Backbone:
């Protein structure tokens, strides 16, 4: 495809906040996931070990995000200027709070960011997530639907899913989301008359080859029509198929028109 | 929330195939991502290093998936029984092929799996992805929308996004009153091995008929592969096409196998 990428400035106003991350490798992997999805701002609340070679290794080219990461002492400091704060949460909590799906949460975050607000996505510790006190700092909670028998995603994997939804929300808002199935066609579609020419050629070639379904001769052409209509043939494909039919007719002593 | 989780049996018929993975840690992280999303079947095509302590460490409780992972020599062996094969692909390729978004691709994969078919998601090497020959084995290509300046996701992160969409599709299907997509099919889809048989037969018959594109002989088979992969052939359609090829070979004095 040759369309130039849409600019998604709203993503620059959505920061990812990691609270007391234990493994520096996870911080690096989060930076990579963010940059893949077009986010730029990473804030670390009291990381156990940072900077560290593991972080740089797993960042794999997103080390600019690591270099610019802000390190703060408290969650409050990380989110002070944010108008919307979403906290990643396991599904069942004693504390009831607005709980959103990643898709709905991403749309809301993106809309706020597009309107000019600073927005934060807050991720907890690898083992224990966010504390209740921290969750109460958040305006909404977001939960990734997961296998109830094994629900705990790797920290960077969770960030990947949530930032993927943020990118989709931004693309959606920019109306730049690729259509469902983009068939990168290098040839024009065959016109109906060209398809009819192909089907007539099939019928003639099959007669020349003495090939038919003895039980139901009409059924064979119906199946070929259904198959090739479903496929949506382009002009070159029609030419190739007719070329093969002509070669077969010639071999059988027909006229190979 | 206290609602009991829906059972999602379709996810058991969707396998993840990793082709020539270099880092065993990534294999472990893929297993964790899969189990988090409720998938169970992992197939490894010629992994560089496996099993390995890094794989077990990153699997982090998903080591049952590693223990049951099947190791095979070739992509063909990994997908032989699959009626739908989706390959992860970068966005721009010289060869055009049906390219789907993760969401649409997941819906289609889940619908086929729910209808009883075996389905595969094929992921390429960390550095170089899937080769063109491997991509041509796939019925559809799936691309995760990413930052065009930094588009390459970590292998396990990509699997996380794609299996997340598969889980959403399965949840969606489980809660939809009427089935989301009704596949009006009177014949089972052909498996990948049956399609390979068809393509080999095409190649043989075209040689017998002395039919080829003098400018680019390989391009012809690629176009036929693309056409028939796109169409999603059922078993009877494969039989009809092979019957026609055999008749043409016989007419040309070949063996008409």
Residues:
């Amino acid at each position: 495809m040759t369309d130039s990428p849409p600019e998604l400035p709203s993503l620059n106003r959505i920061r990812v906040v990691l609270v007391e991350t234990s493994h520096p490798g996870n911080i690096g992997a989060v930076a990579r996931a963010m940059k893949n999805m077009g986010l730029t701002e990473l804030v670390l609340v009291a990381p156990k070990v940072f900077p560290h070679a593991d972080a740089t290794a797993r960042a794999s080219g997103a080390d600019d995000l690591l270099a610019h990461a802000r390190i703060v002492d408290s969650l409050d400091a990380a989110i002070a200027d944010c108008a919307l704060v979403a906290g990643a949460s396991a599904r069942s909590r004693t504390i009831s709070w607005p709980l959103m799906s990643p898709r709905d949460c991403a749309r809301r975050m993106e809309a706020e960011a597009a309107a000019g607000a600073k927005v934060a996505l807050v991720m907890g510790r690898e083992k224990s997530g966010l504390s209740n006190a921290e969750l109460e700092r958040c305006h909404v909670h977001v939960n990734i639907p997961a296998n109830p028998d094994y629900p705990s995603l790797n920290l960077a994997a969770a960030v990947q899913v949530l930032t993927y939804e943020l990118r989709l929300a931004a693309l959606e808002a920019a109306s730049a989301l690729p259509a469902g199935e983009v068939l990168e066609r290098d040839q024009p579609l065959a016109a109906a008359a060209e398809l009819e020419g192909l089907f007539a050629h099939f019928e003639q070639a099959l007669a020349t080859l003495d090939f038919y379904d003895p039980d139901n001769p009409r059924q064979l052409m119906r199946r070929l029509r259904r198959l090739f209509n479903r496929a949506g043939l382009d002009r070159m494909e029609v030419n190739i198929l007719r070329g093969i039919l002509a070669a077969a007719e010639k071999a059988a002593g027909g006229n190979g028109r």
